[in-house]
Design goal:
about 10% helix; 1 helix; about 35% strand; mainly beta
Length: about 170
């Protein structure tokens, strides 16, 4: 029979980290991509929060629909009503590193018009004339994280939408 001698090893101390601490640290790391501050090295401003109490500016006519509606990034996810013959103006403030794409309208109740507005790089500005009764979705996207050549960035997109109902006047 072979005899073995125990080897002595230095005593190692193992610290246990609670699972909640690890989960919180992971959540903070993952949330960092889309939340940049005004003073960050990329120079981008944070996107405004979505507010359910935001109300588009409007001139109301009979029936609860408006003749004029103005939408901004704060109106993401809202549903608005405009009368036939009315106007919808929309401005999405972006940055050069997180620019908004051109606003798209699905449906035939709105017709894009040229408001003659010059916008800063990264912004999206659009105007639409309500030409027929119906429903339209307005939408635009922009990068979730700042895009910079030669730097790591996420590939996520921030989606902005608004539902428009055009009512016969």
């Amino acid at each position: 029979m072979r005899r073995t001698t125990p080897h002595s090893t230095p005593h190692l101390t193992v610290r246990r980290v609670p699972l909640a601490v690890l989960a919180a640290a992971s959540a903070l790391l993952l949330a960092g991509c889309g939340s940049q501050t005004v003073g960050s090295s990329s120079g981008t401003a944070p996107s405004p929060p979505v507010s359910s109490s935001a109300s588009p500016s409007a001139t109301t006519s009979g029936g609860g629909c408006s003749a004029e509606v103005t939408l901004t990034a704060d109106d993401n996810g809202r549903t608005v009503c405009v009368t036939s013959g009315g106007t919808i103006r929309l401005t999405l403030d972006g940055t050069t590193s997180r620019p908004w794409a051109a606003v798209e309208a699905t449906g035939s109740a709105l017709e894009a018009t040229n408001a003659g507005i010059t916008v800063a790089p990264g912004d999206a500005a659009s105007a639409f004339h309500a030409v027929a009764a119906g429903k339209v979705q307005l939408s635009s996207t922009r990068p979730l994280c700042a895009q910079a050549p030669g730097k790591v960035s996420c590939k996520g997109l921030q989606l902005w939408t608004a539902q428009v109902t055009v009512a016969a006047s």
